[in-house]
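Appendix B, Record 12. Input sequence as logged:
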Amino acid sequence: MGHKKLIRFQAIDTYSNVLQYPEGMKGNWHTFFKNDNPITLELACGKGEYSVNLGREHKDNNYIGVDIKGNRIYTGAKAALTEGLANVGFLRISIGQITQYFAANEVDNIWIIFPDPFLRKGKAKNRLTHERFLAQYQQILKPGARINLKTDSKELYDFTLETISEQKCTIHENIADIYAKGLATGPLAIQTFYEKMHLLDNRTIYYVSFSLPETPIVVTGRFAKEEEGELEQEEG
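Logged structural output:
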């Protein structure tokens, strides 16, 4: 581990707004925030720009940035502490473990901002809008809660539209180019470090907001054969 990363990991160990693989938090996030305000998650939050910016603008809501990489969480956690944003916290876990840390109906909304699109063959199951993740989100979200995806990946955008159509989700907004259409307003106006880089590279930014169905998400395993083939190649 590099010296800079080591310093950041040591720092977040002391930050009161960062929890790393905590025990007993499922169903008890009101004790962390000391209120019963709505909770929004920013998944794969990186530096936590959305959590921090939304926390600044909406003091009557709680925001939790979730990521496995503590050296990235450090940036947002430090900013939130410096500004005294008591409604912003960070959770260091693997997103595949999300149901271990949140109870049914405990989360009001989810933001997924420029996640890894996992474009390599056999990696679709790692996309955060894959059906296996939607099934997990369904276990923690309130009915009608919105999942918001913002990405520069046309492949991930198209994949998400296909998946949510198959799962009979409700689409609230679907914007194929938020800047060309002048729709980068409100939360969509928040620009992360990566988004600024993408815009300098003239990339198109896509956005879709949707709700999960009342019926259980069906995990079809439609990528199973492809993924098994990839695994066999890796093992061979």
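The mean pLDDT is 92.
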